[in-house]
Specification:
This protein has 22 helices and two strands. With 472 residues, it is mainly α. The chain crosses the membrane at residues 6-37, 73-90, 102-120, 132-150, 157-178, 190-209, 221-240, 246-277, 289-307, 366-386, 398-418, 424-444. Residues 251-379 form the O-antigen ligase-related domain.
């Protein structure tokens, strides 16, 4: 009987939507209701939809009373589903026991201090509360991984969704760039997906016309997400067979081409360092991949003259981007003195009415926004992640069983190294969500492969005493 009334209620809701909305909006609303109900019953579906959309069209927006990205709306919906299930079935609750997770929770609690100080000491039109809550929501993907991805088959499914979304994004970006030969060619696509601040975005893309645009909006952000995901795609493709192999290798190949076309120095350098580290640990194929990458650079440079001009100036000391970074470091001490407890969340640098600009460094950006305490806590979180996930001494044998661990380890390392040159993985929403989700996947795989490292291992760590990393 309750099911009958529920079906009748849904029919009435759909009828009202069809009556008062245009056909396209009515279909979209019905689809959204179906997705929401499905996620409420199966929270894992919300996380899978998040990674699909966050990698394909990360900043597509929807108006739910307040305007937000669809990616973050899916995260909030997934948490709502988990809270609902915990309410109706308390036995389904999983405590957070990992050391890394606990320290991240400390960082999130500490952020209350710079948030409150920033609210009281800075003047701005943006909502500091909204920005703070969105940042916390994106950090929470680490806890979603711990709750929803305990089973390895779920982690594999999520990696497949990550790669499918990334493949769709790469195909779209490369095709649009080959047709228009300009970063601004993405603007009609982003307009269709209701991206915000389109006037400012169009101005920025026109200024970067020789570099490939993408749904990540800025070429350096595209490079950052490639640094995070390409090692995972590569290891997943090399270690698997059939369509999974082709999926991973296609993402790796197209991602490498996209990395060159968007010309992100930090991402290229960080991935090179990670590949050299893997080659030093005798991970199969990495030496060949470095040679293949060098050949790909030569082919693309010879076939695309603007890339020649870009590479000539990309590492030059008089490059405009390099000079801007020198200015950022020169002005950074002044910014710290002006905001000793952090800028908080109401303002984003550059700060209007002052000569203070931002800082293109992951760790220093934590200091800029959260003060010295915030930066130190982020370092502590990163250190505990490394202690849990690091490989053992000796060679690393890549197998299907450890491919997700090694690929996610390489991706997180590359993201942290790229943080020496860019700040995107500190407070850029959606990118931060993907970063901490990959950290969560890596921790779960490391705890499965290296159970002896867990001083307080829970039952989920003791189910499989597998050391499938070979000698690594």
């Amino acid at each position: 009987m309750p099911g009958k009334f529920f079906a009748i209620g849904l029919g009435i809701v759909f009828g009202v939507l069809a009556l008062f909305l245009s056909p396209l909006k009515a279909v979209a609303a019905v689809f959204a209701v179906v997705v929401a109900l499905s996620v409420l019953r199966f929270p894992l579906w919300g996380l899978l939809l998040f990674v699909l959309l966050a990698t394909f069209m990360p900043y597509a927006t929807v108006n739910l009373g307040i305007r937000t990205t669809v990616s973050e709306a899916l995260l909030a919906l997934t948490w709502g589903a988990l809270l609902w299930q915990a309410f109706i079935a308390p036995e389904s609750r999983l405590p957070v026991t990992g050391t890394t997770e606990r320290w991240l929770m400390v960082l999130m609690l500490f952020s209350i201090v710079p948030f409150v100080i920033g609210q009281l000491s800075t003047q701005g039109t943006a909502s500091g509360l909204s920005n703070w809550l969105r940042w916390l929501l994106n950090l929470s993907t680490l806890f979603l991984a711990a709750k929803l991805l305990q089973e390895r088959k779920n982690r594999e499914l999520l990696v497949v969704c990550l790669l499918l979304g990334t493949l769709a994004m790469l195909l779209l970006s490369i095709i649009v760039f080959l047709r228009t030969r300009s970063a601004s060619g993405m603007l009609p696509v982003l307009t269709f997906f209701s991206y915000g601040n389109l006037d400012m975005l169009g101005f920025g893309l026109n200024a970067l016309s020789s570099r490939m645009g993408s749904p990540w909006m800025h070429p350096n952000a595209t490079g950052g997400i490639m640094a995070l995901l390409l090692p995972l795609a590569l290891c997943f493709g090399l270690a698997n067979e059939g369509w999974r192999r082709w999926l991973g290798l296609c993402v790796a190949l197209l991602g490498a081409a996209a990395l060159l076309l968007c010309s992100s120095r930090g991402a290229m350098l960080s991935l090179t360092i990670v590949l050299l580290w893997m080659a030093g640990r005798r991970v199969p194929y990495t030496g060949r991949l470095l040679m293949f990458g060098a050949m790909l650079v030569v082919v693309l440079v010879m076939s695309y003259p603007p890339l020649q001009d870009r590479l000539v100036t990309i590492f030059s000391s008089d490059n405009a981007s390099t000079l801007e970074r020198f200015d950022e470091y020169r002005m950074f001490p002044k910014a710290v003195l002006a905001y000793p407890f952090g800028l908080g969340f109401k303002l984003e640098p550059p700060i209007e009415g002052t000569d203070l600009i931002g800082i293109s460094n992951l760790w220093l950006n934590f200091m800029y926004k959260l003060g010295v305490g915030g930066m130190l806590l982020f370092i502590v979180v990163s250190w505990h992640w490394w202690r849990e996930s690091r490989p053992n001494q000796g060679h690393i044998v890549l197998t299907r069983d450890n491919s997700i661990w090694l690929g996610s380890l390489g991706g997180v390392l590359a993201a942290l190294i790229s943080g020496l040159f860019d700040h995107y993985f500190s407070f850029a929403v959606v990118m931060v969500g993907l970063f901490w989700l990959l950290v969560g996947i890596n921790l779960l795989e490391a705890r499965r492969l290296f159970p002896a490292r867990q001083t307080q291992a829970g039952p989920q760590h003791l189910k499989t005493g597998i050391t499938a990393s070979g000698r690594g």
